[in-house]
Amino acid sequence: MSRDTDVLVVGAGPTGLALGIDLARRGVAALVVERAGALFPGSRGKGIQPRTMEVFDDLGVLGAIRAAGGPYPVGVIWQGGERVGEHRMFDAAEPSEDAPYTEPWMVPQWRTQQILRARLEELGGRVAFGREVVGLTQDADGVRAEFASGETVTARYAVAADGGRSTVRGLLGIGMTGELVDPHPTLVADVRISGLGRDDWHVFPPGDGDGFLAICPLAGTEDFQLVAQFPDGTAPDLSLEGVRKVVAARSHLAPESVTELRWASDFRPRAALADRFRSGRVFLAGDAAHVHSPAGGQGLNTSVQDAYNLGWKLGAVLRDGADPALLDSYEEERRPVAAAVLGLSTAVHRGETRRGEATRQLGIGYRESPLTRETRTRPGPLRAGDRAPDGTVAGVRLFDAFRGPHWTLLALGDTQAPDLGARIPVVRGPAPAVYGPGLYLVRPDGHVGWAGDTAAGLPDHLARFGQG
Protein backbone atom coordinates (compact mmCIF):
# COMPACT_ATOMS: atom_id res chain seq x y z
CA MET A 1 0.00 0.00 0.00
CA SER A 2 1.50 3.35 -1.01
CA ARG A 3 1.32 5.97 1.72
CA ASP A 4 0.33 9.64 1.75
CA THR A 5 1.36 10.20 5.38
CA ASP A 6 2.74 8.35 8.37
CA VAL A 7 -0.23 8.90 10.67
CA LEU A 8 -3.82 9.84 9.84
CA VAL A 9 -5.54 11.50 12.81
CA VAL A 10 -9.33 11.56 12.46
CA GLY A 11 -10.83 14.40 14.49
CA ALA A 12 -9.58 17.90 15.28
CA GLY A 13 -10.72 18.12 18.88
CA PRO A 14 -8.26 18.51 21.77
CA THR A 15 -7.16 14.87 21.38
CA GLY A 16 -6.40 14.99 17.68
CA LEU A 17 -4.75 18.39 17.85
CA ALA A 18 -2.54 17.43 20.82
CA LEU A 19 -1.49 14.27 19.00
CA GLY A 20 -0.77 16.24 15.84
CA ILE A 21 1.47 18.59 17.84
CA ASP A 22 3.36 15.75 19.49
CA LEU A 23 3.95 13.97 16.19
CA ALA A 24 4.96 17.17 14.38
CA ARG A 25 7.66 17.99 16.91
CA ARG A 26 9.03 14.47 16.43
CA GLY A 27 9.27 14.88 12.68
CA VAL A 28 6.49 12.39 12.04
CA ALA A 29 4.34 13.21 9.01
CA ALA A 30 0.74 13.38 10.21
CA LEU A 31 -2.52 14.61 8.70
CA VAL A 32 -5.33 15.73 11.00
CA VAL A 33 -8.74 15.58 9.33
CA GLU A 34 -12.07 16.91 10.61
CA ARG A 35 -15.53 16.19 9.19
CA ALA A 36 -16.87 19.63 10.15
CA GLY A 37 -15.97 22.78 8.28
CA ALA A 38 -14.42 24.43 11.33
CA LEU A 39 -13.28 23.75 14.88
CA PHE A 40 -15.86 22.91 17.54
CA PRO A 41 -17.53 26.20 18.60
CA GLY A 42 -18.63 25.45 22.19
CA SER A 43 -17.23 25.67 25.71
CA ARG A 44 -18.02 22.08 26.69
CA GLY A 45 -14.69 20.85 28.13
CA LYS A 46 -13.67 24.00 29.98
CA GLY A 47 -11.49 22.65 32.82
CA ILE A 48 -7.75 22.07 32.37
CA GLN A 49 -6.51 19.89 35.24
CA PRO A 50 -3.01 20.30 36.74
CA ARG A 51 -1.54 17.25 35.00
CA THR A 52 -2.76 18.52 31.65
CA MET A 53 -1.19 21.90 32.45
CA GLU A 54 2.11 20.02 32.71
CA VAL A 55 1.44 18.31 29.38
CA PHE A 56 0.65 21.67 27.77
CA ASP A 57 3.88 23.06 29.23
CA ASP A 58 5.78 20.33 27.37
CA LEU A 59 3.82 20.83 24.14
CA GLY A 60 4.60 24.56 24.12
CA VAL A 61 1.11 25.97 24.68
CA LEU A 62 0.95 26.60 28.43
CA GLY A 63 1.64 30.34 28.16
CA ALA A 64 -1.22 30.80 25.71
CA ILE A 65 -3.54 28.60 27.80
CA ARG A 66 -2.84 30.59 30.94
CA ALA A 67 -3.32 33.89 29.11
CA ALA A 68 -6.65 32.71 27.66
CA GLY A 69 -8.25 31.57 30.91
CA GLY A 70 -8.41 31.97 34.65
CA PRO A 71 -9.05 30.17 37.93
CA TYR A 72 -12.44 28.69 38.73
CA PRO A 73 -14.75 31.13 40.56
CA VAL A 74 -16.50 30.37 43.81
CA GLY A 75 -19.99 28.98 43.45
CA VAL A 76 -22.72 31.23 44.83
CA ILE A 77 -26.05 29.62 45.71
CA TRP A 78 -29.18 31.66 44.97
CA GLN A 79 -32.69 31.26 46.34
CA GLY A 80 -35.58 33.63 45.78
CA GLY A 81 -33.27 36.22 44.28
CA GLU A 82 -31.00 36.21 47.35
CA ARG A 83 -27.50 34.85 47.82
CA VAL A 84 -27.85 32.20 50.49
CA GLY A 85 -24.50 30.44 50.48
CA GLU A 86 -21.21 29.65 48.79
CA HIS A 87 -19.73 26.44 47.45
CA ARG A 88 -16.18 25.79 46.29
CA MET A 89 -16.20 23.52 43.29
CA PHE A 90 -12.71 22.13 43.96
CA ASP A 91 -10.77 21.35 47.12
CA ALA A 92 -7.96 23.88 47.50
CA ALA A 93 -4.32 22.81 47.21
CA GLU A 94 -1.20 24.91 47.53
CA PRO A 95 1.38 24.70 44.72
CA SER A 96 4.80 23.30 45.59
CA GLU A 97 8.14 22.96 43.86
CA ASP A 98 7.35 19.40 42.75
CA ALA A 99 3.77 20.24 41.68
CA PRO A 100 3.62 23.86 40.46
CA TYR A 101 0.04 23.56 39.14
CA THR A 102 -2.50 22.33 41.66
CA GLU A 103 -5.75 24.06 40.72
CA PRO A 104 -7.77 23.52 37.53
CA TRP A 105 -7.62 26.33 34.99
CA MET A 106 -10.74 27.39 33.12
CA VAL A 107 -10.51 27.82 29.35
CA PRO A 108 -13.51 27.24 27.06
CA GLN A 109 -12.92 24.28 24.79
CA TRP A 110 -13.21 26.32 21.60
CA ARG A 111 -10.36 28.54 22.77
CA THR A 112 -8.18 25.58 23.81
CA GLN A 113 -8.63 24.14 20.33
CA GLN A 114 -7.70 27.42 18.68
CA ILE A 115 -4.49 27.50 20.71
CA LEU A 116 -3.64 23.88 19.88
CA ARG A 117 -4.33 24.43 16.19
CA ALA A 118 -2.07 27.49 16.13
CA ARG A 119 0.73 25.47 17.73
CA LEU A 120 0.23 22.62 15.25
CA GLU A 121 0.51 25.03 12.33
CA GLU A 122 3.56 26.66 13.91
CA LEU A 123 5.22 23.24 13.78
CA GLY A 124 4.28 22.76 10.13
CA GLY A 125 1.15 20.64 10.62
CA ARG A 126 -2.34 21.35 9.41
CA VAL A 127 -6.00 20.40 9.73
CA ALA A 128 -7.97 19.37 6.65
CA PHE A 129 -11.61 20.33 7.26
CA GLY A 130 -14.66 18.86 5.53
CA ARG A 131 -13.17 15.37 5.48
CA GLU A 132 -15.79 12.85 6.60
CA VAL A 133 -14.46 9.30 6.84
CA VAL A 134 -16.93 6.79 5.38
CA GLY A 135 -14.70 3.78 4.80
CA LEU A 136 -11.61 2.26 6.35
CA THR A 137 -9.51 -0.73 5.29
CA GLN A 138 -6.11 -1.93 6.43
CA ASP A 139 -3.51 -4.57 5.73
CA ALA A 140 -0.14 -5.54 7.17
CA ASP A 141 1.50 -2.39 5.80
CA GLY A 142 -0.97 0.43 6.31
CA VAL A 143 -4.44 1.95 6.52
CA ARG A 144 -6.62 3.39 3.76
CA ALA A 145 -9.36 5.88 4.61
CA GLU A 146 -12.11 6.87 2.18
CA PHE A 147 -13.89 10.20 2.56
CA ALA A 148 -17.44 11.16 1.60
CA SER A 149 -15.97 13.32 -1.16
CA GLY A 150 -14.49 10.24 -2.81
CA GLU A 151 -10.93 11.14 -1.86
CA THR A 152 -8.71 8.63 -0.12
CA VAL A 153 -5.70 8.87 2.19
CA THR A 154 -3.26 6.10 3.04
CA ALA A 155 -1.12 6.02 6.18
CA ARG A 156 1.06 3.64 8.15
CA TYR A 157 -1.17 4.12 11.19
CA ALA A 158 -4.47 5.86 11.97
CA VAL A 159 -5.94 7.26 15.17
CA ALA A 160 -9.65 7.68 15.82
CA ALA A 161 -10.04 10.92 17.77
CA ASP A 162 -13.51 11.60 16.38
CA GLY A 163 -15.54 11.73 19.58
CA GLY A 164 -18.05 9.68 21.50
CA ARG A 165 -20.05 8.82 18.38
CA SER A 166 -16.86 7.81 16.58
CA THR A 167 -17.40 6.80 12.98
CA VAL A 168 -14.04 5.08 12.91
CA ARG A 169 -14.84 3.00 15.99
CA GLY A 170 -18.03 1.89 14.26
CA LEU A 171 -16.18 0.99 11.06
CA LEU A 172 -13.77 -1.11 13.13
CA GLY A 173 -16.66 -2.92 14.83
CA ILE A 174 -15.39 -2.10 18.32
CA GLY A 175 -18.13 -2.07 20.93
CA MET A 176 -18.49 0.33 23.84
CA THR A 177 -19.69 -0.81 27.25
CA GLY A 178 -21.22 1.62 29.71
CA GLU A 179 -24.23 3.08 31.45
CA LEU A 180 -26.26 6.24 31.81
CA VAL A 181 -24.87 8.18 34.74
CA ASP A 182 -28.00 10.30 34.86
CA PRO A 183 -31.18 9.63 32.84
CA HIS A 184 -32.23 13.28 32.85
CA PRO A 185 -31.60 15.39 29.73
CA THR A 186 -29.14 18.22 30.29
CA LEU A 187 -28.79 21.48 28.38
CA VAL A 188 -25.41 23.17 28.01
CA ALA A 189 -25.13 26.51 26.23
CA ASP A 190 -22.82 29.46 25.78
CA VAL A 191 -24.73 32.69 26.32
CA ARG A 192 -24.34 36.40 26.91
CA ILE A 193 -26.22 37.59 29.99
CA SER A 194 -26.75 41.04 31.46
CA GLY A 195 -27.32 41.74 35.13
CA LEU A 196 -25.23 38.87 36.47
CA GLY A 197 -21.78 39.30 38.02
CA ARG A 198 -18.75 37.65 36.45
CA ASP A 199 -16.88 37.00 39.69
CA ASP A 200 -18.98 33.99 40.74
CA TRP A 201 -20.36 30.70 39.45
CA HIS A 202 -24.11 31.16 39.95
CA VAL A 203 -26.02 28.08 41.12
CA PHE A 204 -29.82 27.93 41.32
CA PRO A 205 -30.97 24.75 43.15
CA PRO A 206 -33.94 22.77 41.80
CA GLY A 207 -37.45 23.62 42.91
CA ASP A 208 -41.10 23.08 41.96
CA GLY A 209 -40.27 20.13 39.70
CA ASP A 210 -37.56 21.97 37.82
CA GLY A 211 -33.97 20.80 37.71
CA PHE A 212 -30.97 22.85 38.71
CA LEU A 213 -29.57 25.77 36.76
CA ALA A 214 -25.91 26.80 36.86
CA ILE A 215 -24.42 29.80 35.08
CA CYS A 216 -20.64 30.08 35.04
CA PRO A 217 -18.62 33.01 33.63
CA LEU A 218 -16.13 31.73 31.05
CA ALA A 219 -12.73 33.19 31.85
CA GLY A 220 -11.14 35.21 29.10
CA THR A 221 -14.46 35.84 27.32
CA GLU A 222 -17.69 37.81 27.72
CA ASP A 223 -19.70 34.60 27.73
CA PHE A 224 -21.28 32.40 30.38
CA GLN A 225 -21.70 28.65 30.22
CA LEU A 226 -25.24 27.68 31.19
CA VAL A 227 -26.11 24.16 32.36
CA ALA A 228 -29.67 23.09 33.13
CA GLN A 229 -31.11 19.69 34.00
CA PHE A 230 -34.59 18.46 33.00
CA PRO A 231 -35.76 15.81 35.50
CA ASP A 232 -39.15 15.45 33.81
CA GLY A 233 -37.42 14.00 30.74
CA THR A 234 -38.38 16.91 28.48
CA ALA A 235 -36.03 17.45 25.57
CA PRO A 236 -34.43 20.89 26.02
CA ASP A 237 -35.36 23.66 23.60
CA LEU A 238 -32.02 24.78 22.14
CA SER A 239 -33.32 28.08 20.75
CA LEU A 240 -32.69 31.50 22.27
CA GLU A 241 -36.32 31.66 23.40
CA GLY A 242 -36.06 28.21 24.95
CA VAL A 243 -32.98 29.19 26.93
CA ARG A 244 -34.64 32.42 28.05
CA LYS A 245 -37.63 30.49 29.40
CA VAL A 246 -35.37 28.21 31.44
CA VAL A 247 -33.47 31.15 32.93
CA ALA A 248 -36.65 33.06 33.79
CA ALA A 249 -38.32 30.01 35.34
CA ARG A 250 -35.39 28.98 37.52
CA SER A 251 -33.74 32.25 38.54
CA HIS A 252 -34.54 35.85 39.46
CA LEU A 253 -33.42 37.02 36.00
CA ALA A 254 -35.79 38.30 33.34
CA PRO A 255 -35.94 36.44 30.01
CA GLU A 256 -34.43 39.36 28.12
CA SER A 257 -31.33 39.25 30.35
CA VAL A 258 -30.14 36.50 28.02
CA THR A 259 -29.02 38.74 25.20
CA GLU A 260 -27.34 36.22 22.92
CA LEU A 261 -27.14 32.46 22.39
CA ARG A 262 -23.78 31.49 20.93
CA TRP A 263 -23.92 27.69 21.07
CA ALA A 264 -26.19 25.05 22.59
CA SER A 265 -26.34 21.28 22.90
CA ASP A 266 -28.13 18.65 24.93
CA PHE A 267 -27.01 15.28 26.26
CA ARG A 268 -27.64 12.62 28.87
CA PRO A 269 -24.53 12.07 31.00
CA ARG A 270 -23.11 8.60 30.53
CA ALA A 271 -19.96 6.62 31.22
CA ALA A 272 -18.70 4.19 28.60
CA LEU A 273 -15.44 2.45 27.74
CA ALA A 274 -14.44 0.98 24.39
CA ASP A 275 -13.92 -2.76 24.49
CA ARG A 276 -10.54 -2.29 22.83
CA PHE A 277 -8.31 0.71 22.18
CA ARG A 278 -6.68 -0.82 19.10
CA SER A 279 -7.56 -2.77 15.99
CA GLY A 280 -4.52 -3.57 13.90
CA ARG A 281 -2.97 -0.30 12.78
CA VAL A 282 -5.81 1.87 14.11
CA PHE A 283 -5.96 3.27 17.65
CA LEU A 284 -8.82 4.86 19.60
CA ALA A 285 -8.11 7.95 21.69
CA GLY A 286 -10.16 10.47 23.62
CA ASP A 287 -13.94 10.26 23.59
CA ALA A 288 -13.75 7.64 20.85
CA ALA A 289 -12.30 5.37 23.56
CA HIS A 290 -14.06 6.61 26.71
CA VAL A 291 -17.01 8.90 27.46
CA HIS A 292 -17.37 10.63 30.83
CA SER A 293 -19.86 12.64 32.80
CA PRO A 294 -18.62 16.24 32.68
CA ALA A 295 -19.01 16.60 36.45
CA GLY A 296 -15.46 15.64 37.34
CA GLY A 297 -13.76 17.72 34.67
CA GLN A 298 -11.92 14.61 33.47
CA GLY A 299 -12.92 13.93 29.86
CA LEU A 300 -10.82 16.44 27.91
CA ASN A 301 -7.88 15.90 30.25
CA THR A 302 -7.86 12.13 29.97
CA SER A 303 -8.19 12.51 26.21
CA VAL A 304 -5.20 14.84 25.85
CA GLN A 305 -3.16 12.45 27.96
CA ASP A 306 -4.13 9.57 25.65
CA ALA A 307 -2.57 11.55 22.82
CA TYR A 308 0.50 12.33 24.92
CA ASN A 309 1.00 8.64 25.69
CA LEU A 310 0.51 7.48 22.10
CA GLY A 311 2.51 10.23 20.39
CA TRP A 312 5.96 9.32 21.70
CA LYS A 313 5.38 5.63 21.01
CA LEU A 314 4.42 6.26 17.39
CA GLY A 315 7.50 8.47 17.11
CA ALA A 316 9.72 5.72 18.56
CA VAL A 317 8.44 3.20 16.01
CA LEU A 318 8.29 5.49 12.98
CA ARG A 319 11.45 7.54 13.56
CA ASP A 320 13.68 5.67 16.01
CA GLY A 321 13.28 2.13 14.74
CA ALA A 322 11.66 0.70 17.88
CA ASP A 323 9.87 -2.62 17.63
CA PRO A 324 6.23 -2.01 16.59
CA ALA A 325 5.24 -4.22 19.53
CA LEU A 326 5.86 -1.10 21.64
CA LEU A 327 2.50 0.18 20.42
CA ASP A 328 0.72 -2.61 22.31
CA SER A 329 1.57 -0.72 25.50
CA TYR A 330 -0.78 2.13 24.57
CA GLU A 331 -3.88 0.08 25.41
CA GLU A 332 -2.11 -1.68 28.28
CA GLU A 333 -1.35 1.67 29.92
CA ARG A 334 -4.27 3.89 28.99
CA ARG A 335 -7.30 1.59 29.17
CA PRO A 336 -6.93 0.94 32.94
CA VAL A 337 -6.45 4.67 33.49
CA ALA A 338 -9.59 5.46 31.48
CA ALA A 339 -11.60 2.86 33.41
CA ALA A 340 -10.52 4.35 36.75
CA VAL A 341 -11.25 7.90 35.62
CA LEU A 342 -14.70 6.87 34.42
CA GLY A 343 -15.45 5.59 37.90
CA LEU A 344 -14.16 8.82 39.41
CA SER A 345 -16.24 11.03 37.09
CA THR A 346 -19.37 9.03 37.86
CA ALA A 347 -18.73 9.26 41.62
CA VAL A 348 -18.31 13.04 41.40
CA HIS A 349 -21.52 13.34 39.35
CA ARG A 350 -23.47 11.38 41.95
CA GLY A 351 -22.03 13.34 44.87
CA GLU A 352 -20.11 10.35 46.24
CA THR A 353 -16.75 12.13 46.20
CA ARG A 354 -15.41 15.65 45.87
CA ARG A 355 -13.30 17.26 43.20
CA GLY A 356 -9.94 17.00 44.89
CA GLU A 357 -6.61 15.24 44.68
CA ALA A 358 -7.74 12.47 42.34
CA THR A 359 -9.37 14.83 39.84
CA ARG A 360 -6.09 16.76 39.47
CA GLN A 361 -4.67 13.61 37.81
CA LEU A 362 -1.18 14.11 39.23
CA GLY A 363 -1.28 10.62 40.74
CA ILE A 364 -1.89 8.76 37.48
CA GLY A 365 0.97 6.40 36.70
CA TYR A 366 2.08 3.18 35.07
CA ARG A 367 3.77 1.11 37.77
CA GLU A 368 2.31 -2.11 36.35
CA SER A 369 3.16 -1.31 32.74
CA PRO A 370 5.35 -3.72 30.74
CA LEU A 371 7.48 -0.67 29.91
CA THR A 372 8.28 0.06 33.56
CA ARG A 373 11.41 -1.22 35.32
CA GLU A 374 12.10 -0.64 39.02
CA THR A 375 15.55 -2.12 39.82
CA ARG A 376 16.38 -0.44 43.14
CA THR A 377 16.77 -2.71 46.15
CA ARG A 378 14.95 -0.27 48.44
CA PRO A 379 12.82 2.11 46.37
CA GLY A 380 11.41 5.19 48.02
CA PRO A 381 7.92 6.70 47.69
CA LEU A 382 8.62 7.69 44.08
CA ARG A 383 8.58 4.53 41.99
CA ALA A 384 9.22 3.70 38.36
CA GLY A 385 5.97 4.34 36.50
CA ASP A 386 5.05 7.42 38.54
CA ARG A 387 4.78 10.94 37.19
CA ALA A 388 8.20 12.60 37.36
CA PRO A 389 7.83 15.59 39.72
CA ASP A 390 9.20 19.04 39.08
CA GLY A 391 12.05 20.40 41.19
CA THR A 392 15.44 22.05 40.97
CA VAL A 393 18.71 20.12 40.68
CA ALA A 394 21.99 22.05 40.64
CA GLY A 395 20.15 25.16 39.42
CA VAL A 396 18.25 23.32 36.68
CA ARG A 397 14.46 23.23 36.78
CA LEU A 398 13.45 19.67 35.98
CA PHE A 399 10.41 20.57 33.88
CA ASP A 400 12.73 22.69 31.75
CA ALA A 401 15.01 19.69 31.33
CA PHE A 402 12.12 17.37 30.47
CA ARG A 403 10.54 19.76 27.95
CA GLY A 404 10.79 18.37 24.43
CA PRO A 405 10.39 15.03 22.66
CA HIS A 406 13.43 13.39 24.30
CA TRP A 407 14.17 11.07 27.22
CA THR A 408 15.97 12.52 30.26
CA LEU A 409 18.25 10.82 32.78
CA LEU A 410 18.48 12.11 36.36
CA ALA A 411 21.60 11.13 38.30
CA LEU A 412 20.79 12.23 41.85
CA GLY A 413 22.98 12.10 44.91
CA ASP A 414 26.24 10.18 44.56
CA THR A 415 24.90 7.87 41.84
CA GLN A 416 27.13 7.65 38.77
CA ALA A 417 25.53 8.22 35.36
CA PRO A 418 26.62 6.35 32.23
CA ASP A 419 27.39 8.16 28.97
CA LEU A 420 24.23 7.83 26.89
CA GLY A 421 25.28 10.13 24.07
CA ALA A 422 23.88 13.48 23.00
CA ARG A 423 20.32 12.21 22.42
CA ILE A 424 19.55 11.80 26.12
CA PRO A 425 20.42 14.76 28.36
CA VAL A 426 21.63 13.99 31.88
CA VAL A 427 20.85 16.16 34.92
CA ARG A 428 23.28 15.59 37.83
CA GLY A 429 23.12 16.98 41.32
CA PRO A 430 21.75 16.64 44.85
CA ALA A 431 18.55 14.64 45.15
CA PRO A 432 15.33 16.56 45.89
CA ALA A 433 13.46 14.98 48.78
CA VAL A 434 10.58 13.91 46.53
CA TYR A 435 13.01 11.80 44.48
CA GLY A 436 15.77 10.56 46.74
CA PRO A 437 19.14 9.35 45.43
CA GLY A 438 19.38 7.11 42.39
CA LEU A 439 19.13 7.02 38.63
CA TYR A 440 15.77 7.96 37.10
CA LEU A 441 15.09 7.62 33.38
CA VAL A 442 12.19 9.93 32.50
CA ARG A 443 10.09 9.02 29.47
CA PRO A 444 9.13 11.61 26.86
CA ASP A 445 5.67 11.79 28.47
CA GLY A 446 7.05 12.77 31.87
CA HIS A 447 6.83 9.42 33.69
CA VAL A 448 9.72 7.58 35.30
CA GLY A 449 10.27 4.60 33.02
CA TRP A 450 13.26 3.06 34.78
CA ALA A 451 14.85 3.58 38.20
CA GLY A 452 18.00 2.06 39.65
CA ASP A 453 20.77 2.30 42.21
CA THR A 454 23.28 1.70 39.40
CA ALA A 455 23.16 1.81 35.60
CA ALA A 456 23.03 -1.99 35.28
CA GLY A 457 20.38 -2.84 32.69
CA LEU A 458 19.76 0.74 31.62
CA PRO A 459 21.29 0.52 28.10
CA ASP A 460 19.26 -2.62 27.35
CA HIS A 461 16.10 -0.90 28.56
CA LEU A 462 16.71 2.09 26.31
CA ALA A 463 17.36 -0.14 23.31
CA ARG A 464 13.71 -1.26 23.44
CA PHE A 465 12.74 2.26 22.36
CA GLY A 466 15.30 2.77 19.60
CA GLN A 467 17.55 4.72 21.96
CA GLY A 468 20.49 2.29 22.00
UniProtKB/TrEMBL annotation:
Start and end residues of each FAD-binding domain: 4-342
Which keywords belong to this entry? FAD, Flavoprotein
Q: Which InterPro entries match?
A: FAD-bd (IPR002938), FAD/NAD-bd_sf (IPR036188), RIFMO-like (IPR050641)
Note whether NADP occurs among the keywords: no
Cofactor requirements of the protein = FAD
- Tell me the SUPFAM superfamilies matching this sequence: FAD/NAD(P)-binding domain (SSF51905)
Residue ranges that the Swiss-Prot or TrEMBL entry lists as coiled coil: none
Which Pfam families does its entry note? FAD_binding_3, Rng_hyd_C
Tell me the PANTHER family matching this sequence.
BINDING MONOOXYGENASE, PUTATIVE (JCVI)-RELATED, TRK SYSTEM POTASSIUM UPTAKE PROTEIN
Q: What is this protein called?
A: FAD-dependent oxidoreductase
Where is the organism placed in the taxonomic lineage, from the top? Answer: Bacteria, Bacillati, Actinomycetota, Actinomycetes, Kitasatosporales
